[in-house]
Amino acid sequence: MQQDRRSWLILAHAFLSVADLQTLLDYFGTPAAIVKQARSRLAETGLSDEKCAAITSPDEAAIAAAIAWLGEDRHYLVAWGDDAYPEMYTQIPGPPLVLYVNGDIDALHLPALAIIGSRNPTQGGRRNAHDFSRHLARRGFVIVSGLAQGIDAAAHEGALDAGGKTIAFLGTGIDRVYPPGNRELAHAIAANGALVSEYPLGAAPERWHFPERNRLISGLSLGTLVVEAARRSGSLITARLAAEQGREVFALPGSIHNPLARGCHELIRQGAKLVETAADILAELSPLAGHMLETTEESTAGDAPPDLGDDDYDELRRVLGYDPVSIDELEKQSGLTIDQLSSMLLILELHGEVESLSGGRYALAR
Questions:
Q1: Residue at 294 is within a domain
Q2: Residues 314, 291: one domain?
Q3: Phi then psi dihedrals of residue 245, to 5 deg
Q4: Contact yes or no for 98/80 (Cβ under 8 A)
Q5: Are 334 and 315 in contact (CB under 8 A)?
Q6: Neighbour count for residue 92 (Cβ, 10 Å)
Q7: Section 262-275 average pLDDT
Q8: Is the same domain home to 296 and 308?
């Protein structure tokens, strides 16, 4: 086992693709046999000089550090072909050769939803990410994101607040946290879900790592929800990858005056499913997840939402009635902003106090 682990680490540090590995296995049979070959023999397979050199002259200090890291509790190396390798990745182009995992390895095999968006969201966008995540985590979905500031962090926090599981894919080595300000959040994710990276220990947050790791966020998930995004953003790259991987793409609409809504509106024009409530996502994904979802709607019915007794919520209830009213009219009557109203209406709807009706109108639930 120790020799197999060392062999896989050498191949991973050589940055082999799964296609490279399959070619080498056809020639030599096993990872252990591959790493014993002379450089000339490896070159006969068509492998690049750089990768041949990395296999025949591995960085022994880096390999030793990785083996030491793997000796710690809840630290894993998941390689292509392992029983623990996520089946979802066998269906996508460019699957990872190995995954470094810190946390609950079983979370990689549960039904997952990616929630992504701007690093600098509006307050309403952050609340929406948190509340959608919280509700869907309670329904049994693992919430997947990228540990970035803004929407990513709010999505992870929503799942944790629900007592659910969340997975963060890193654009660094598994032993580094980026951005550093999310270190405490990363520790909480490792304890209640998993941190995952395909990069060797110590890998820096290189710019190209983040769009590269986005295929893993979308690839592990049954669907991807974009909460807020500008027209040119990494979130739209992830949404495009999700569509190419055959996954569902969802987008939250927003105010036409909000620049961070324009990316979501663009996705909707391109065929993403417009989402107003968590039920819209459940309707699409529950049939795909099937019996894998462990919780039921009844399990969330008695949960008390936060801050529903404060003055703002009381004012909103006062101006709402049983007759449908638009959010613009609510803005005029309540003095609350559109962003505040969007978040508050979502929370009230999730907890059965408000109905979302056609034409963007709302009413108290009967």
A1: yes
A2: no
A3: -85, 0
A4: yes
A5: yes
A6: 19
A7: 96
A8: no
The SS3 of residue 76 is strand
User: In this structure, are 144 and 208 located in the same domain?
Assistant: yes
Residue 17 sits in which domain range? 1-65
Query: What is the crossing angle of helices 123-138 and 338-350, to 10°?
Result: 10
Whose tokens are 């500031």? That residue is: 149
The answer to whether the CB of 189 falls within 8 A of the CB of 102 is no
- Give the range among 15-19, 270-274, 282-286 with minimum mean pLDDT: 282-286
Kindly state whether residue 22 falls inside one of the protein's structural domains: yes
Measured from the Cβ of residue 260, the count of other Cβ atoms closer than 10 Å reads 24
At a CB cut-off of 8 Å and minimum separation 6, what does 222 contact? 111, 112, 113, 247, 248, 285, 288, 289
Rounded CA separation 48/202 (Å): 24
Query: Which CATH number does the domain housing residue 138 bear?
Result: 3.40.50.450
Q: Which residue has the tokens 């304890």?
A: 191
Query: Count of domains in the chain?
Result: 3
Can you give the pLDDT at residue 80? 96
Considering the domain architecture, whether residues 37 and 137 belong to the same structural domain is answered as no
How far apart are the C-alpha atoms of 247 and 268, rounded to whole Å? Answer: 15
Cα 273 from chain centroid (whole Å) = 18
Residue 197 and residue 169 in contact, taking contact as beta carbons nearer than 8 Å? yes
Q: What local confidence, expressed as pLDDT, does residue 366 receive? A: 65
Are 287 and 184 in the same domain? yes
The string of pLDDT tens digits covering residues 30-87 is 999 999 999 999 999 999 999 999 999 999 999 999 999 999 999 999 999 999 999 9
Beta-carbon contacts of 22 under 8 Å, excluding residues fewer than 6 positions away, are none
Let me know whether 156 and 179 are in one domain: yes
Q: Are residues 171 and 219 in the same domain?
A: yes
C-beta neighbour count of 135 within 10 angstroms:
27
Residue 361 per-residue DSSP state: E
